[in-house]
Write a structure and sequence with these properties.
mainly alpha
């Protein structure tokens, strides 16, 4: 049974898939490092983070529009079989690496915040098994789980940000140019690779209704993620300031700790650990599914299920390899170079080839839009 391409996923499914993959990093210590680098103008980098991947997604939608079939067929028609293998294997490595890194980071912070006495390996195995189960159930189960969780997660984070308004000091946003406007622009351009997850919509194009569905899903998902990122960054900096904010390792948890409702309802950060964990779990599951899907397409497998256990074991072992959290953060910073290749180089190459062949009439343009 071929369950790779159900062909009936809609806009809501696409929004949930992309949002689940690209959003969780904003709640990790990556944000603290960026604040140290850019200062109060980090919000501008977040805006650029959002715009560039959306443009790339529309370019890839143009590439896919003229060719019937999955992403491997598209690459074969444009740059040959060997080129297709190189590109798809590279993207598979990107998504599996992202899944392994997010798995390790969320496992570390789960131990720090909620389960300090639990064995480290147990937490990683729990995340990997849960993500594997979601992948095994199929893309529809994964996207609809994300779509159910997404509104509650956004509402919970929005409530935290609103309750922290009394703590906000607008003066902390000065100097408005931070460490330099061009520095923020460079951060946004370089960091756009973290949103490579938006290309999952193009890779899974046969599973969606049409190209219009993919475009709308990308627009809404990145818009929601962008608004939430910018709001989170502004509140975080106004509450802690750039200097203190750059020292925090768990931004969302630190913000939630400041919320005080009354003497009978305190320490609500414990409630938001659940939301935080769900973000991480869905990011790991989404990255794992896309990475394995690309391998399944290359190997011409009719279903993803036989390789899901192997994929879960792989990312779990990769997540356990780094000796400490500092080393993980270093790997994460270096891996952005690979992500940038995925967000800039490969899509640009495919777009140029598709445009050139369509202009010369060498490419079929009968695919539905």
């Amino acid at each position: 049974m071929n369950d790779l391409h159900p062909g009936k996923l809609g806009v809501a499914d696409g929004i949930a898939l992309v949002f689940g993959i690209v959003m969780p990093r904003v709640f990790l210590s990556t944000i603290s490092n960026l604040i140290q680098q850019d200062g109060p103008i980090l919000w501008l980098a977040m805006v650029i983070y959002t715009i560039i991947p959306l443009i790339i997604l529309y370019m890839m939608a143009y590439v896919h529009k003229g060719i019937n079939g999955d992403i491997f067929i598209v690459c074969q028609r444009l740059i040959g079989t060997i080129g297709g293998w190189v590109i798809l294997l590279s993207y598979s490595v990107m998504f599996l690496s992202n899944g392994a890194l997010v798995l390790r980071l969320y496992s570390e912070y789960t131990l720090l915040t909620a389960l300090p006495r639990v064995e480290f390996q147990v937490v990683i195995i729990w995340y990997a098994v849960s993500a594997g189960i979601l992948c095994y159930l199929g893309i529809e189960a994964l996207t609809r789980t994300s779509y159910i969780v997404m509104p509650f997660s956004i509402a919970a984070i929005g409530m935290i940000l609103l309750l922290l308004v009394p703590f906000c000091i607008a003066y902390n946003l000065t100097p408005w140019q931070g460490n330099g406007v061009m520095q923020a622009v460079q951060t946004g351009i370089k960091g756009a690779g973290y949103n490579v997850g938006v290309l999952a919509l193009v890779f899974l194009a046969p599973a969606f209704q049409n190209t219009r569905t993919i475009k709308k899903a990308a627009l809404y998902a990145l818009s929601y993620a962008g608004i939430l990122r910018v709001s989170f960054i502004l509140v975080y900096i106004m509450v802690f300031g750039s200097s203190v904010g750059a020292e925090k390792t768990m931004p969302l948890f630190e913000l939630a700790r400041l919320v005080y409702l009354n003497q009978y309802l305190q320490r609500i950060e414990a409630l938001f650990i659940v939301v935080w964990v769900m973000f991480g779990l869905l990011a790991v599951a989404g990255s794992l599914y896309v990475g394995l899907y690309l391998l399944a397409v290359l190997l011409k497998l009719p279903t993803l299920r036989p390789i899901v256990p192997l994929g879960a074991i792989l990312i779990a072992n990769l997540a356990m390899m780094p000796p400490d959290i500092g080393y993980v953060l270093e790997v994460d910073q270096k891996l952005i170079t690979l992500f940038d290749v995925g967000i800039y180089v490969f899509p640009t190459l495919l777009f140029i080839m598709a445009w050139w062949k369509k202009r010369r009439g060498k490419l079929c343009t009968s695919a539905s839009s």
